[in-house]
From TrEMBL:
Residues 322-507 form the DNA mismatch repair proteins mutS family domain. Residues 11-302 form the DNA mismatch repair protein MutS core domain. SUPFAM superfamilies: DNA repair protein MutS, domain III, P-loop containing nucleoside triphosphate hydrolases. Keywords: ATP-binding, DNA-binding, Nucleotide-binding. This is DNA mismatch repair protein MutS. It comes from Acidithiobacillus sulfurivorans. It holds the Pfam family MutS_V. It comes from the Bacteria. The keyword Nucleotide-binding applies. PANTHER family: OS10G0509000 PROTEIN (PTHR48466:SF2), OS10G0509000 PROTEIN-RELATED (PTHR48466).
Amino acid sequence: MEADLKPLEFEGIRRLLEKLCATPFGADAARNLGPAPSVGVARQLQDAITAARFGLESGEGPVVPELPDIRAAIRQVASPGAALAGTAFRNLALVLRVGKELRPFAEKRPALLPTGPERLDAAADLLPKIDAVLMPNGSVREDGNAALRQLHAELKSERDQIQKSMQSHLGAPGAKLHWSGQRACVHLPDGATDQIRGVRRGTGPGGHGYLVEPMELVASNNRLEKIAGSIEQENQAILRALSDAGRERLSALQHLVESLTWLDLAIAGAQLSIHLHAKAAEMVDEPVLILEEAYHPQLILAYAEKRGPQPKPLTVHINADCPILVVTGPNTGGKSVSLKTVGLLTVMAHCGLHVPVAGRAVVGNFTRIFVDMGDPQSVAFQLSTYSGHVEVLKRLLADADDHTLILLDELGTGTDPEEGAALAMAVLDHLAERGVRGMVTTHLTPLKSFAESHACLRNASMRFDHERLEPTYELEIGVPGRSLGLVIAAKHGLPENLIAKARDYMENLHKHY
């Protein structure tokens, strides 16, 4: 499904999911989440989130711990001849263990991972190979193989002999043994009399004093360096062999990351579902939309954090009997929020996320959600507000079909009201002929009577409390709204005589038109 995500503020949902993810690959998936390629895939993630939520609420899990990012290591190990660093293998081992631990959860609840639990530990036989040759810090074990055991024994013996030979040079005041790499030196303080016959090796630690390598130890130090070089070559051979083993399991490693990404996203989606008191929508092939007692996610969270008022539920039915809703009513009455709620929840359902509704939630297989909200004027392209709306309508009319959901805010505005209303009627006629579904908001009075008599349009309005002179933010289908501009102006303190004169002018306008 294609969708205009920016005006629906879907980025806010992505950010919430990203914060709830435990792994870097899950967080990346949340940042890039979009509508699934098919309703079937959306249902799979819905089911995984449902299973994860059940596990979280029952205390059974699973919980994905924070993990290092191993994707670069997997890309590196894919290159023939590569020798992955030991620390990278230790990170890989950590992820392999987590995959192994998660398999029983996926076996118990198959919906958690539709690709199958076996993908979580298909490369787990790499673990004993890593543990056999690497220390917990990632360095190669001294007993990693027979050659290394021999080389490290030789290195230790040679160092012991050198340290014994060095004792005769450490009697001078301030003289200390210092290892510069594999070379044993004497560290003498500044100003010390150089009584040692040897090779100067630069300054001491921190730039204090100087280092002298006694001449009789040069050959021994050379042997030490040669042994150390042989050890490093053997270490690299071991890391290369381990990398070859990883390359043989490359597909399994990639599947492990994909599976952990899916699980992390599903668990994050489950946590979001709990926060929003959400549920899985019923996904159907027909272009219908039923949202009963639905809420905008951000309004729920703002209320929970005491940053906003308690949101009012929204109920919308869009189907063959009521293809397009024409929503009217006063400014600040919640028309735009209603559009955004419908659009955002539809996109969330197509992404596989749960939606915050207290009643039914049925979302059809819309191939496109077309959104026109706000002011589309562009200084760069010299477009006025009206011209911007016209450009949007051109794209809509070129692509819309019977599986398109439209959400148009203030249709027909930006030009003369009569011309705007006429254009809006023609557009709605054209869209209705194509079987388009959706909601449009407007202030234009002629559209109310047009919707009343049109077979494919249905009036709706945002309720207004006339006693308190306040909007209720509740959608009422079947009843056209009133703009109530003069009522609201009076409430906000415009002079009574000015309001009275405006009413007189309005009556005269009605007589002429």
